[in-house]
Specification:
Distance between the termini: 54 Å
Number of helices: 16
Largest sheet: 6 strands, mixed
Order of helices and strands: EEHHEHEHEHEHHEHEHHEHEHEEHEHHEH
Number of strands: 14
Bound molecules: pyridoxal-5'-phosphate
Helix content: 40-55%
Radius of gyration: 19 Å
């Protein structure tokens, strides 16, 4: 099967012409390697012994009871190495980079989570790595900056524009245009120009393949609904992909931030329009001129002004439903899961939990739900404590 360039009208390659040969080279390498026996065996071995897969599918008994008796399972991506699903993608892309003979890795990062996952995989493969990060984010996310440096990555501060993720994205693309011959650009979600959205989806789809096998083993039937948070959309696509051909309901939960009508949110599908970001056509938050607006969410990982093109397509097709929850609702779910199950979730993942809490009366005791717990909440405890008034 060839690698899709578009999902309906979405996707494509809205990039400078100079990088088209590099995208062609990547697509050709991926098409050749993805079915290669040695490549698959090496990736499987790294996912097992380095990442810690398969991650458990955990039956959240107390949460199920608390929310009216619907059986709820959590896919425990929080237990993967580095504490989130992002490592599934970066290990796979670093393997591609190594096989393609690339001598240098670049990436951009907002909160630093993708930067840390990329720096981790780059260290694993021994390839030098530079991470672009907005100056404002460097101040806000000091711990992740330290982690990247400890892992041997160079963190390049970006002082242009709003000094946040979108500016770091522009700088990373500029670097790639200049150094495209020897440099591999690691994109962190199901976004970017083709073939990235398909590659990242495939690398993350291990989540759904495992969950499918695990739920059949535990319950003897498929789930009735899947729920996942959506920033760029990679943990959601990773879970959904293995179930798209079944009749399973799927919900992607975006960040409503301080409220959809405040303008301070990250709900690109619910409130965005068709536009171009990060080299592809999708739903984005933009002004009348097509300039990208800043997103807002209490969770840094959902603070992205766009969404992967395949999600825009699945939305228009009606195959996946998209909804949103606010910062306050996510925070309440963060506390609830911590105290009901002894699991402190990432604030991103708390959005998926919050959707289930908010709509629990729509579910029955016959429903069987899998929620993707995309990451652990250690990184968020200070912010959550401040928001909850536990700590100043
Ligand atoms: C980055 C991140 C997300 C959002 O990214 P997606 O591509 O939408 O998955 C969600 N959860 C966690 C824990 C993250 O680190």
């Amino acid at each position: 099967m060839t690698i899709p360039v578009r999902f309906g009208p979405y996707g494509g390659r809205y990039v400078p012409e100079t990088v088209i040969p590099a995208l062609d080279e990547l697509a050709a390498a991926y098409e050749r390697l993805r079915d290669d026996t040695d490549f698959k065996a090496e990736l499987a071995s790294l996912l097992k012994d380095f990442v810690g897969r398969p991650t458990p599918l955990y039956r959240a008994g107390r949460l199920s009871e608390k929310l009216g008796g619907t059986t709820i399972y959590l896919k425990r991506e929080d237990l993967a190495h580095t504490g989130a699903h992002k490592i599934n993608n970066t290990v796979g892309q670093l393997m591609l980079a190594a096989k393609m003979g690339k001598a240098r890795i670049i990436a951009e990062t907002g909160a630093g989570q993708h930067g840390v996952a990329t720096a981790t995989a780059a260290a694993l493969f021994g390839i030098p790595c530079a991470i672009y990060m907005g100056e404002k984010d460097i101040v806000r996310q000091e711990l992740n900056v330290v982690r990247m440096k400890l892992l041997g990555a160079e963190v390049i501060p970006v002082s242009s524009g709003s000094r946040t993720l979108k500016d770091a994205m522009n700088e990373a693309i500029r670097d790639w245009v200049t150094n495209v011959e020897n440099t591999y650009y690691v994109i962190g979600s199901v976004a970017g120009p083709a073939p990235y959205p398909a590659i990242v989806r495939d690398l993350q789809s291990v989540i759904g393949r495992e969950a499918r096998r695990q739920i059949l083993e535990a319950e003897g039937r498929l789930p009735t609904e899947l729920i996942a948070c959506v920033g760029g959309g990679s943990n959601a696509m990773g879970l959904f992909a293995a179930f798209l051909d079944d009749g399973v309901r799927m919900t992607g939960v975006e960040a409503a931030g301080e409220g959809l009508d405040t303008g301070r949110h990250g709900a690109s599908i619910e409130r965005g329009e068709r536009g171009v970001l990060h080299g592809s056509l999708s739903y984005v938050l933009q002004d009348a001129y097509g300039q990208i607006l800043e997103a807002h969410s209490i969770s840094a990982g959902l603070d992205y002004p766009g969404v992967g093109p395949e999600h825009s397509f699945l939305h228009d097709e009606g195959r996946v439903r998209y909804d949103s929850v606010t910062d306050a609702e996510a925070l309440a779910a963060f506390t609830m899961l911590s105290q009901t199950e002894g699991i402190i979730p990432a604030l991103e993942s708390s959005h998926a939990i919050a959707y289930m809490v908010k709509h629990s009366d729509r579910f029955t005791a016959d429903d069987l739900v899998i929620i993707n717990l995309s990451g652990r909440g250690d990184k968020d405890v200070h912010q959550a404590a401040r928001a909850l008034g536990i700590m100043s």
